[in-house]
């Protein structure tokens, strides 16, 4: 499993952007690590699935609510990563009203989850291999903090914990 001080793996994720903007075309766009992380401080959190109860009712809304405070404390971007396709992540982002606050990043084939060792096997529950629920503060591609949740828990990967860690870093 990835640990504090490690560099995030050089995998490609995807993001669905509905409105063309600064360097982003409409449609799924590759988010190539480490290029996307270079020179940035990222508050990254991962969830087992889009539109799932804890993820939709607590995890994403917490980061949306704390986005301004996180950015004021030095975070350049907030990323929500999930093993879903870019279209689902885009739709979930619209539903959660994340525009300008949280980037919804798809780990469609679980390459990131596997490479970090932060997978969650939900095969018996019809969800397949997913990302475990976690958060990490990443500076210039390196893990500064890592908060991995226990099975069925939502205690350490929330936005308040991340904000306290950003302020302490």
Describe the structure.
Pfam families: Redoxin. This protein has a single domain, classed as Glutaredoxin. 28% of the residues lie in helices and 30% in strands. The chain contains 4 helices and 9 strands, in the order βββαβαβαββββα. β6 (119-122) and β7 form a beta hairpin. α1 (53-72) packs parallel to α4 (159-168). It is globular, with a radius of gyration of 14 Å. The relative contact order is 0.23.
What attributes characterize this protein structure?
globular, two-stranded antiparallel sheet, 169 residues, Glutaredoxin, 9 strands, 4 helices, alpha/beta, five-stranded mixed sheet, 30% strand
Any low-confidence stretches, pLDDT <50, length ≥5? none
* Whole-number count of domains: 1
The CATH homologous superfamily: Glutaredoxin
Sheet bearing the most strands, described? 5 strands, mixed
The radius of gyration computed from the alpha-carbon positions, rounded to a whole number of angstroms, is 14 Å
Helix content: 25-40%
How far apart are the first and last residues' alpha carbons, in Å? 22 Å
State the CATH topology.
Answer: Glutaredoxin
- Examine the secondary-structure arrangement and name the CATH architecture: 3-Layer(aba) Sandwich
Strand content: 25-35%
* CA-based shape: globular
- Taking all residues together, what is the mean pLDDT? 93
EC number: 1.11.1.27
Function: Thiol-specific peroxidase that catalyzes the reduction of hydrogen peroxide and organic hydroperoxides to water and alcohols, respectively. Plays a role in cell protection against oxidative stress by detoxifying peroxides.
Domain Thioredoxin: 2-169
Protein name: Glutathione-dependent peroxiredoxin
């Amino acid at each position: 499993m990835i640990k504090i001080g490690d560099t995030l793996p050089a995998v490609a994720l995807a993001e669905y952007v509905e409105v063309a903007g600064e360097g982003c075309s409409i449609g799924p766009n590759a988010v190539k690590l480490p290029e996307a992380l270079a020179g940035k401080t990222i508050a990254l959190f991962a969830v087992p699935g889009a539109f799932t109860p804890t993820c939709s009712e607590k995890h994403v809304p917490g980061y949306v609510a704390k986005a301004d405070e996180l950015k004021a404390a030095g975070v350049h971007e907030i990323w929500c990563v999930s093993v879903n396709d870019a279209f689902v992540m885009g739709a979930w982002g619209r539903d959660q009203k994340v525009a300008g606050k949280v980037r919804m990043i798809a780990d469609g084939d679980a390459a990131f989850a596997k490479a970090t060792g932060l997978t969650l096997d939900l095969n018996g529950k019809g969800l397949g291999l997913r990302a475990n629920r976690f958060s990490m503060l990443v500076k210039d591609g390196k893990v500064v903090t890592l908060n991995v949740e226990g099975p069925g828990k939502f205690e350490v990967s929330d936005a308040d914990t991340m904000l306290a860690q950003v302020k302490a870093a």
